Each structure stands twice: as C-alpha cells, then as structure tokens.
Amino acid sequence: MKKLTIVLIMLLLLTGCRGEEFMTLRGRVIDDMTGEGLAGVRVEIGDIDLKTNTSGFFILEDIPVVEEVPLEDRFVKVGVSGYNTFVQELILEKGDKSLEIRLSPYSTKEESNDKVDEGNLKEQDLRGGIKLPEDINDGWSKDTNIVEERDEGLYDWERSIIQATGFGISPSFTKNKTQARIMAREAAITAAQRRLIELIDGVQIDSKQTVRNAQIESDIIERRISGLLKGARIVEEKELDEDSYMVVMEVHLYGKEGVIEAVLPILEGDGKSSRPIDNKEPNVKVNYTGVIINGTSDLKPALAPNIYSSRGELIYGMDTINVDGVVIDGLVSYSRSLADAKNNSRVGNNPLIIDTKGSRGDYNTDLIVSNNDAKVMKALEREGILSERRVIIVLN
C-alpha cells in the first residue's frame, strides 16, 4: 500500500498541472444462492476500502487511474465470514464502473475464508459491454428463446419490450435522507439508461447484423438509437434503503420511438417490395386469415426475419412487402406457445399452421418452410394476407 502512495506523489510532482483522473466503483454484493444483498462485506482495492450497507451496496470513490499502480493494487477483493473470498483484477479507467459480485457460501465447515472465488464478477463500464464468465454462454438464458435474460435486463419478444435495471447509491457527502434518496434515484436512472443502450445494441435486426453493427455503419442510426432514451419509461422503482435505490426502465421494439423505427432506414430501401407477386404460380384456393409458424429449437428472434422455401426462394420478408405499418407492429410477432398464437387477433380465426424445416442465416433468425407450404404462403400473398403482416412465429 505504501508503494502505491509513493508512486502517486511522484506522479503528481512530475505531471505538474496535468489533471488527476479518478474512477468511481459502485456495486452490490449478493449471496449467490439466495440472490439477497449481503451487509457488512468488506470491499477493497489498493488502500481504499469500506463495507457494504444493509442492502449489500457499496461505492468506492476517488480511485486513482494511473499506469504506475502496482499490479497487486489493481485487484478488487471482497470477503466476509462464512463466504468464499472474491478476488478479481480490475481495469482502472476514468469514469464510473458498476459491479455485481456474487459470493458463494462455504460448502463445508473445513473451508477457510482465504479460499478465492473467481468468475462471478459482472463488470460494466460507461462505454458498454458486460464481461461475464466464459461458461455462462454469453449470459443468455437457456430456459426460453422468447424471453432472453441478461445481467440487469431482459428481452421479451412476446411483449416486444426491452427492460433494464439500474441500482444507485447516494454519495457520502449528502446532507440529509431526502437528498440521499434523490441522488440515489438519479444514479439508478443513469445506470438503467446505460444498461438499456447496451441491451438495445445487442438486438438482432436480421440474420446478418445487430443494432450495434448498424450504428458502426451509419451515423444516422447511431443518433436515432441514442434518442431512444427520451422515450424510455420507468416501469418500476423502489427505495431499497435510505441510501440505495432501484429503477427498471423499458423501451419497445416496435411502435413510435421503438427500436425498429430507429433502424428502419437500413431496412426499408425505397419503401417498396423488391419482388413482384408471382402470378404464374398455380392457383391455390385458400381461406386462411393468417400464418402461424412453429419454429425449431435453435431459432432466434429478430426484428426482420426472412422466410424461405426449401429450395431457397424468399417467401416473406422486408424485401417482399411494403414497409408501411412495419413500425407499428413489426414484420412478425413472436409467441411462446401455439395456443397463445391461435388466440392472437393478428392471425384471425383461421390461421394456416406450418412447421418449419429448419433455420438459416448467420444467427439462425431466418426460417425454412417446405416447398408445398411456400406455395400456400404465396397464395396468401396474392390475397393480401402477408402484406398485412399477419404472421406469428412460435419460439419453442
């Protein structure tokens, strides 16, 4: 610890008027088994340390950001009696960082407090990106494809929403409980907004690109995505204790100020179908009011999936319809079950029900149907059913 202090003093003398840079570390320590916050846990990095509050929250301020900090002083160490000690190297960067640290209880009485638990750290910085243990499968929930859970957030494709949770802690210099609550709430909103942008970046647009990729290619898309936060609304908020706060915010995938509206410029082209209806196809009599497609287990949701025949012909997608109305309710809807899909007014009272033959595309977002089913869908296209986007995909 003394080495760190000496290095910092020397650096200040050498740099003169060059400004100092500091990092603020905020977070929560929770029980890995119960998910509850742990109070009185010691959190330290270098010669700075404190204990978590009654809800497990902590905030470490004024952590110096300099290259000369010794390696041993770059590790965050978290420990309390009854739990395995957590140790992880922390990247020192200017700004705020948020951590959620899960401590696992001892499995036997013989285990000591010196045992190190590595790999349960979830680290988030202002530039975006979550660093997760490699064995978590990139953080995606394996329970269902339609509700994809991420750290401090989720995608719900059936409800067409993205939700993000932010936690805030009041700084130590607050004068009273009211000020502490206000500042903790503001910090929670900022954290939720930051997480929301990260989740939006991860939305799959089609089989080839995500929102993040689209922003790299287009400044217009980047500005539109940033503007989505203006339409984000708080759907839940809670004061956890007198100096910590939680906020849940959400944005919609479709509709005004939805994600699809922000990325529409790269989807719509000239706003007209690029494939004329093929009137040479043999007439197939249909009286269906919509289409329900049972997806395969590896199928992933996207804003603009395509549907192909077994021989590779595009049957349905952004290139086969006019884009008017896509912003309102999307190209397709997703459902968690066939029963729910049948009860959805989008497909009417007599939908055609199709089983997919498989998925395709770099991210398994596109569907393959049999050539016979493709013929029926083309007949529905001539009847205007597909142009009205009466399509639901069931994600198993």
Query: Low-confidence parts, pLDDT < 50 over ≥5 residues?
Result: 2-18, 108-143, 270-277
Anisotropy-based shape: elongated
Radius of gyration, in Å, reads 26 Å
Percent of residues in helical segments?
10-25%
Q: CATH top level of the largest domain?
A: Mainly Beta
Largest sheet: number of strands, sense, barrel closure = 5 strands, mixed
Total helical segments? 9
Question: What would you say this structure looks like, in words?
Answer:
With about 400 residues, the protein is of the alpha+beta class. The chain is built from 9 helices and 22 strands. About 40% of the residues are buried. The protein has helices at about 1-15, 175-200, 210-215, 220-225, 260-265, 265-270, 325-330, 340, 370-380, and strands at about 20-30, 40-45, 50, 55-65, 75-80, 85-90, 95-105, 120-125, 130, 145-150, 155, 160-170, 235-240, 245-250, 290-295, 305-310, 315, 335, 350-355, 360, 365-370, 390-395. The strands form 5 sheets. A 5-stranded mixed beta sheet has the order 4-1-7-8-9, with no helix packed on it. The protein has a 5-stranded antiparallel beta sheet with strand order 10-11-12-14-13. The radius of gyration is 26 Å and the shape is elongated. The longest helix is centred in the middle third of the chain and has 25 residues, at about 175-200. Mean pLDDT is about 80; it is low at about 1-20, about 110-145 and about 270-275. It has 3 domains: about 1-130, Carboxypeptidase-like, regulatory domain (Immunoglobulin-like, Sandwich), CATH 2.60.40.1120; about 145-265, no CATH class; about 290-395, no CATH class.
